[in-house]
């Protein structure tokens, strides 16, 4: 088969409701996809006549020294394709990128397991939309609003919390698979093809993280906005590592749902994630960032130590989250007498925030830190700002607001001069608050025009 050049993008996400609860299959999360996307371009690596390489080069040209070179080999006993980082090249970074490395190993192992396609040398380019990071630099690109040169090493870039790792792994796996496999083997836009991509991306993302998470971020990257109920962790528990005997067979069974034990039981309801016309989801970057993994461990430890108290609080939160999704749906469908009457919506968000702060205090975890409370309350006093939360796991990532369209200019003007003081909290201090240009996007994975990336491809 002749390998062709492809480009695929996956959206970021914001978990508007269901932080922590979404870890449990009893509960759900309301997640919106965002129009900030991670893009992956894959092409055959051209070499000089007579020169044969077994190398895959991955570049992230928006960052300094962000190049990784990999060798690959088929392991014994159906262990899959093992990836080895090649060090010593003058243009390559010496540090590992576990998400790229794991996504590549899982994608190639699956390709090798289901087809006789020759892997061959490949060039992969990763590009991120501007709002994924807090410190944009200069750009050589003709469209400075889409892709810019962040002008820092990747390790020094400040994420805004839009779900870059899940979007990266999802777009990466999808681009590699569509590069090597024809439409009959895997169609990006068919229901069965998209489901297999979801399953593979979930497996790779969990492996890269070193834990089996809820998967809401990968689900949003594949399917877009939805109400999400997680998959059973047992699906991935016996998968093992790349290179272990029979890994490629186990991976194929998990991706293709070969039996009852590998059948994915997540629930993805796209119709339940709606926003009414005239209402927009916006995010404000506070340029602090949190370690959500460490926070989640503390919350789950509190829940384990206080099961009755936690169960009651989580059930109440779940009810509030369902009411939020339901009110947004009613407004979107025009069921209420006045489509611009957002009083119930605003009160529901305030109730959810109150419950989140209660859990934050009980677990001693800064889910909604005081400095974020002050910012949210200040924003909500602006006419047309309906409400807002610290999304997902909370902490010091970007906040999310639901606003009427005509509230954007006064909101941006307010944030331009917003300042906080150090006596609000013992944690990080918010400096400059930036209104990100992202908004809700209901579409998940999609193919892109390869000409879009002409300025960034080598």
Question: Would you give an account of this structure?
Answer:
With 458 residues, this protein is α+β, with helices and mostly antiparallel strands. The chain contains eleven helices and 13 strands. It has helices spanning 98-114, 164-180, 191-209, 216-223, 234-237, 247-256, 292-305, 307-333, 343-363, 370-380, 408-416, and strands spanning 6-17, 29-44, 56-59, 67-74, 81-85, 122-128, 226-229, 267-269, 279-285, 385-389, 399-404, 434-435, 446-447. The strands form two sheets. Strands 1, 2, 3, 4, 5, 6, 7, 8 and 13 form a nine-stranded mixed beta sheet that branches. β3 (56-59) and β4 form a beta hairpin. The chain is globular and about 60 Å long. Residues 136-143 have low confidence and may be disordered.
Helix content: 25-40%
Overall mean confidence score, pLDDT: 89
Determine Rg (CA atoms, Å).
22 Å
In oligomeric terms, what are we looking at? single chain
Strand content: 15-25%
The span between the termini is 24 Å
Strand runs, count: 13
Order of helices and strands: EEEEEHEHHHEHHEEHHHHEEHEE
Please mark out the parts with pLDDT under 50 across 5 or more consecutive residues, or reply none: 136-143
Biggest β-sheet description: 9 strands, mixed
Globally, the shape reads globular
Based on helices, strands and strand pairing, what is the structural class? alpha+beta
Number of helices: 11
Explain briefly what this protein structure is:
With 458 residues, the chain is an alpha+beta fold. It is 34% helix and 18% strand.
């Amino acid at each position: 088969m002749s390998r062709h050049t492809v480009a695929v993008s996956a959206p970021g996400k914001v978990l508007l409701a269901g932080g922590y609860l979404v870890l449990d299959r009893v509960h759900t999360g309301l997640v919106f996809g965002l129009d900030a996307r991670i893009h992956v371009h894959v092409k055959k690596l051209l070499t000089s006549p007579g020169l044969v390489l077994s190398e895959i080069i991955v570049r992230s040209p928006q960052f300094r020294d962000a190049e990784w070179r990999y060798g690959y080999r088929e392991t014994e006993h159906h262990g899959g394709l093992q990836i080895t980082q090649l060090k010593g090249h003058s243009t390559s970074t010496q540090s590992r990128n576990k998400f790229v490395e794991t996504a590549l190993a899982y994608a190639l192992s699956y390709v090798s397991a289901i087809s006789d396609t020759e892997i061959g040398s490949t060039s992969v380019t990763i590009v991120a939309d501007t709002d994924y990071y807090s410190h944009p630099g200069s750009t050589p690109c003709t469209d400075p609003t889409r892709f810019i040169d962040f002008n820092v090493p990747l390790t020094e870039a400040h994420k805004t919390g839009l779900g870059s790792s899940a979007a990266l792994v999802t777009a990466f796996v999808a681009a590699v698979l569509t590069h090597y496999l024809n439409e009959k083997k895997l169609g990006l836009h068919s229901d069965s093809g998209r489901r297999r991509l979801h399953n593979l991306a979930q497996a790779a993302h969990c492996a890269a993280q070193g834990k089996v998470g809820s998967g809401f971020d990968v689900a949003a990257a594949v399917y877009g906005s939805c109400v999400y109920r997680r998959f059973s962790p047992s699906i991935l528990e016996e998968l093992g590592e790349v290179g272990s005997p029979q890994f490629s067979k186990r991976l194929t069974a998990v991706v293709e749902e070969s039996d009852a034990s590998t059948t994915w039981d997540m629930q993805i309801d796209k119709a339940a994630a709606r926003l009414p016309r005239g209402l927009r989801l916006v995010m404000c970057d506070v340029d602090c960032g949190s370690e959500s993994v460490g926070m989640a461990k503390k919350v789950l430890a509190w829940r384990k130590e206080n099961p009755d108290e936690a169960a009651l609080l989580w059930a109440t939160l779940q009810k509030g989250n369902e009411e939020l999704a339901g009110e947004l749906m009613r407004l979107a469908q025009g069921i209420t007498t006045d489509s611009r009457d957002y009083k119930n919506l605003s009160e529901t968000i305030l109730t959810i925030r109150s419950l989140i702060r209660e859990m934050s205090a009980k677990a001693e975890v800064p889910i909604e830190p005081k400095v974020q409370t002050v910012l949210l309350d200040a924003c909500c006093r602006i006419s047309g700002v309906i409400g807002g939360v610290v999304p997902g796991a909370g902490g010091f990532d970007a906040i999310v607001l639901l606003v009427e369209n005509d509230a954007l200019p006064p909101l941006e003007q307010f944030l331009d001069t917003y300042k906080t003081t150090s006596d609000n909290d013992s944690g990080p201090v918010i400096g400059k608050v930036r209104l990100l240009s992202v908004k809700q996007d209901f579409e998940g994975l999609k193919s892109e025009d390869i000409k879009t990336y002409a300025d960034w491809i080598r």
